Amino acid sequence: MSKKTYEAELARLQARLVDMQAWVQHTGARIVVIFEGRDAAGKGSTIKRVAEYLNPRVTRVVALPTPSERDRTRWYFQRYVPHLPAAGEIVLMDRSWYNRAGVEHVMGYCTQAEYHRFLHQAPIFERMLVEDGIVLLKYWFSVSDVEQEARFRSRSEDPMRRWKLSPNDVLSITKWEDYSRAKDTMFIHTDIPEAPWFEVDNEDKRRGRINMIHHLLSRIPYREVERPAIEIPPRPASGGYERPPRDDAGQVPDYAATLG
Questions:
Q1: What is the pLDDT of residues 83-92, one digit of tens each?
Q2: What is the CATH number of the domain that holds 190?
Q3: Of 17, 195, 202, 241, whose CA is between 20 and 30 Å from 49?
């Protein structure tokens, strides 16, 4: 996809996302969008484009850190429940409870009993959410092993993005087939009619982002909400206020002037 075509369509879709958000606020809808996939599959960059022009008080990105020792003693889904949306809110989950079916299972961070319990409970938990009126959308971002390795190498050479590369990410190269089997098993158990999985081919990031956002909008039964016009009032005449001398306040130095 050419950059020109991509940017034009992305802007159009992002404007529709703003309309969708207004409908969510107006109707009190609750939406959860789950972003899952292989490491370096482009989940984060897609979330960035989805949320770019949305109100962060309405649309929240949830990316939980490694569970604490206390978290490990609680019901597994308990950690995620506080982050579910209230009326008029959208939650974008950068990874989710599916950590247990993926990295925790493959890397041995959970027991086999915990893993199988998750596969049993996840569909039940999600049906409860949907029955309560939450719109739950689940996206899996796919990328080839060759493209994943290329993205890892690109990150390792870029000081601005090196933080995105963790030891677990690198190990995923050596466990490609293990992750593939885990994903296949996860789909078998959790691809349910109430909350199906949708796979995003993200080999081409531009194409993948456009496809995902377009699909997301197609799954939300929103309509344009008429928003009241905001009138900018005329500025009143001066009442005699005089600003104190700037030397009396700490000023940020004009570093930009040194750049020529």
A1: 999 999 999 9
A2: 3.40.50.300
A3: 195
